[in-house]
Every structure is written in C-alpha cells, then in structure tokens.
Amino acid sequence: MENLSIQLLFVEDNRIDQTMFTRFVKQEQLPYVYTIAGSVHTAEQILVSEQQFDIAILDYMLGDGTAFDLLEKLQNIPTIIITGIGDEEIAVRAMKAGAYDYLTHFTQ
Predict the structure, then answer these.
(1) Dist. CA 37–CA 104, nearest whole Å
(2) Which residues carry this modification: 4-aspartylphosphate (predicted)?
(3) Which among 3, 19, 54, 102 is least surrounded, fewest beta carbons within 10 Å?
(4) What is the C-alpha R_g of the chain?
(5) Which residue, 56, 2, 59, is CA-closest to 34?
C-alpha cells in the first residue's frame, strides 16, 4: 500500500497553537506533511516556492494581516479559515472570497 500524505500549509502566528497542531498530528499519526508559517509574509514566501499544497488552514487574524491577504494566492488550494472571532460577516466574506470553510474555535 502506498504511503499517501497530505501536503498541508498551516498559517498561525500563535506559537502555542502551532505546537498544539504539531503534537496533535503526531499523536493521531495523521498522514500530513505540513509547513507552518507564522505570518502572512512568511506564507507568501512559501507560496512562491515550488512547494505544492493539497490544503491550507489559515488563522484569520495574523500579526501582519488577515487570512484574506492570502486567499487570492491560494485560489487553487482548498482553504479553511479558523478564528476565535465568531463573526458571521467574516464567515460570509471568507466563503465568497473562495474559502472552502470557516471554523470558529473557542478559547478560555
């Protein structure tokens, strides 16, 4: 059987969330080969490289912009936006801009 892996771009500026994502992928033995970007700028640099992604998961609020700054560059990549802000207006805007989904996560 082939070892099929999913090439994933995870854009998250919070180091704790980056670590939690990494631990979860390893703990669950998910078939992800992932690249983590901590900013819009870093994600843009990664996207101009030759690396191909099957999916992108973007935090909505990033230190140097928002997920909307990256959506146009991800047109051919299924993209999910995650945020702690439960704003329906942002969700509708994200879907209209080409995001496949918009998920709200809750923090304590």
Answers:
(1) 20
(2) 59
(3) 3
(4) 14
(5) 56
Q: What single-letter amino acid sits at 54?
A: D
Helices then strands, each counted (H, E), the chain: 4, 7
Residues 5, 2: Cα–Cα separation, whole Å: 9
Residue found under tokens 């992928």? 25
Contact between 26 and 85 under an 8 Å Cβ cutoff? The reply is no
Nearest to 38 by CA among 71, 11, 77, 8: 11
The answer to whether the beta carbons of residues 37 and 8 sit under 8 Å apart is no
**Domains of the chain by range and CATH?**
6-104 (3.40.50.2300)
Q: Model's pTM, two decimal places?
A: 0.84
Q: Binning pLDDT at 50, 70 and 90, where does residue 108 land?
A: very low
Strand order in the sheet with 55-59: 32-37, 6-11, 55-59, 79-83, 101-104
